[in-house]
């Protein structure tokens, strides 16, 4: 589902050596005199679930549950029964002792069922506890499912997929560690390892009747070695992804650390901060349709990926985001070139969103900023770029200030058909003259070069 949209992204970008006949035509480009970008939205605040204090210590012998990787259908059935009993008897959650709990029951040709939380509760795994999906051949599964619930906390231990033992019959890209579905609200996932899933570590997805999920937090966790994504947001309002390590995502498209791609739902007011991203095959963060997205204080390192598909940070034209205080480390070009941030448009329709994309106070080591054909507003300020450049074309309202490019030779600031104001920008410590104005397109590189 997700790969259909993201998979086309590579064809939509141009690096600095490409050509684009549409860029050479100025008749469709336009901007207002004395342009002034609209203000960005406020920093998202995400509500946590209500606290739960009365937890049931799961009694394995009482329920006949194996913690040694026993029969997955029996383990699933009895564990779900224990969770429901706990809620019915006044408990607010369940603690799972150490051990390996293999779960999985094929309930249709395409779905293998795992643990299904029965209501508002905590599911707390001992640090030595592992919930493991049994090997299967289905396209879809959830090791733990949260469907239409409120005030849920899942914490501790490990959730492991069947990636290494799965019987693949196609893409088989919808096998997830935790599925937050059906307009669930106030869900906290923390202090947990999610790995070896055939799909995503965490999938947040809305429901057609109820809409998007709300107030979802994923923090202080490790998400790695999943085939499709670390986290997919397919309809999420007020989402916080904080303090995680997300790495080595590879196997089937899109292959990002975090992907916002809402389809028929809405994704907005999302904060992604203080995470460590590295060694992800397509990139670390992609936003196709989310608004008021804040991506800040993260570290992004290509690591050992030498053929990264899209780039560390990618966004599409319907979105708006604040990208600030990040460190982006690139060791080699992606398919698109040495771009730490790249804005896709993929066509010549004007960007309608009046809120600018803010790119500020970031450090780029070995990569730069690419906003070609973005047709709209942008604020690019106080970034440090070592070894590459800032590029933009057909921007109708740009605020470019106090950036520092350090580059031994070649192009550093490269613009065509850009309106806006530039001030305080440096090249190797010396001021750069970029005489932009709000009422006349500025060009400092001739069309025949790109």
From TrEMBL:
SUPFAM superfamilies: Pectin lyase-like. InterPro entries: Beta_helix (IPR039448), PbH1 (IPR006626), Pectin_lyas_fold (IPR012334), Pectin_lyase_fold/virulence (IPR011050). Gene3D superfamilies: Single-stranded right-handed beta-helix, Pectin lyase-like. Pfam families: Beta_helix. Residues 12-47 are annotated as: Disordered. Residues 174-313 form the Right handed beta helix domain. Coiled coil: none annotated. This is YclG. It comes from Plesiocystis pacifica SIR-1. The lineage of its organism: Bacteria, Pseudomonadati, Myxococcota, Polyangia, Nannocystales.
